[in-house]
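Can't paste images in this forum, so I'm doing it all in text. The chain is below; anyone willing to post the predicted structure tokens underneath?
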Amino acid sequence: MIFRKLLPAAACLLSVSSFAQIRTEVYFSSDNKYHEIIEDVGNPLPGSPVMIIKSFVPNYGSYIWFLNDSKATNLAYLDEQPKDLHSGIFVEDHGGLIQKMTFKDFAGGLVQPKYLLNFCEIDDANKDGFPEFYLTYFEESDGLDAKPLKVIVYTGLGKKAFTKSKITGWIPFQEEDEYREVQDANFKLLPKEIRLRAKKTLKDAKNGMN
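Text version of the structure:
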């Protein structure tokens, strides 16, 4: 399967900054600000960031979302340079970082997880003044089984910990199989606006894959 090319950083900036007051910016390694962030607060996760998203949320502070990959720790054969994924959301505090959530998925055997960076987004779908973080990735693998395309939604309202919810689209490999979606228990409890936003992200990500 082929993923569509990454949009330029400026386009990503426009797509995630549409909600009022919450100011969000996206940075890649080619951006000076990317390196300034790492110099200021460090890199709190294994590997190197493939994308950093910084979001200032009025009344709640400045959040930094790192999406890193690292050399695979397990033997993996699907990719010439297999990668493990490490992601984390942190809030800045007196020059340091407070962890709000972390995520990891590992390559191994004939399985390779890959971020769909165009669909790792921040939005305030239910307009409560605090954003949701939508982490989208695909688990590529060899074989005839359906492949999972996942959207993980992290929600919270300045709480000490975020809530994790997930919707998975199973992409069929064989023509006789049908596409299906599975929602976890937490996802079903999300406000309707957030569920619809996550479903749209999943649909757009699926349509963006060939």
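The mean pLDDT is 90. Residues 43 and 49 are 8 Å apart (CA to CA).
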